[in-house]
Amino acid sequence: MIERNVQLIAALAVEKDKSSQLDLMMGLHPEEKRWLSEDEENLDHIIPLIGYVSMESIVAASKSDPLCKNALLWIKYFPQIKQFAAYRGDELYTKLWESALHKQSILHLAYAFYPKSAVINREEWEAVNNAAKSLQHNIDKSLATDGRTKGKICWTLPFPAESSLGRIIEAQAGLNKDLKARIGVTNYAPGLLCNYLLLRDKSLENILDPYQFEEIAGMIFAEEGWKVSVTQRSRDGGKDIIAQKEIDGRLTIAYIQAKRHKEKNKVGITKVKEFVATVAGDKVDIGYIVTTSSFSKPALQWLKEKGIDIATIELIDRQKLLRLMENIATSKIPVYLKI
What we know:
The protein is α+β, with helices and mostly antiparallel strands and 339 residues long. It is 46% helix and 19% strand. It has three domains: 4-12 and 103-201 and 332-337, no CATH class; 18-100, no CATH class; 208-326, 3-Layer(aba) Sandwich (Trna Endonuclease, Chain: A, domain 1). It contains 15 helices and nine strands.
């Protein structure tokens, strides 16, 4: 399994009255335009004070107490911060980011997938980093002529996808939101999809619905040179995808069946027999069954002993599927612009 650190590059168009909140969240003093000190940034110390001490007491003590002075800075730009007094650490920052970015425009979102170790994979890391910098530069240039930036403050920020900000940006306008909305996935670069799906903390069957999984299977075959067509979502006769490819000067036609199963739910002998009958009955050259699980022993044994005489079938289980996706994920420098 590939291991990468995922970086997002987001171009934001922020209303001017919200820009000071972003300054503060990024560690910049909104008025003095300097980096905040460690004490000024330490909300785990500041938030209990805001939650349990009256505003009047904080103001009265702010001239002599640095903690109260720091609390006033956050209260000034986040008047609603008292509502978040029960939160700590990452949850608190998530609430503040959600507040700061509420209804703000995300103009562009890009993904860069870095190797886990910059030392061991130095050449690859530098290639990804250079591509990411180039993409960010191009995004910055495009903002100058983008009408959506009029009257707003623009930010183009690289940050870890697994940070508080990363999760909020992605939830607001990212790939994860689109996938959960069950829209088609074929408008994304194959490398972006494969990197994204392989690096999630959930299995494919928990991210994709059955129809999206069919599209992913079709995408994998398309990357191997097949011309694919996903069939209608009902009455497909077991052939979810029809693929064509010229092999050794001869047009080869394949049926592909996609089975989105939980890992423990193996594809059984009945389903294999039905698909073999469909492939043989339509006199198709070859059939593929692609699954997120595996195949039962009776299914494998029957196919080996009897099914092979009826039709040519290739089985792609979870492990083979992941290897195919890894090949796509690592075939190019993994830097992609989404929107």
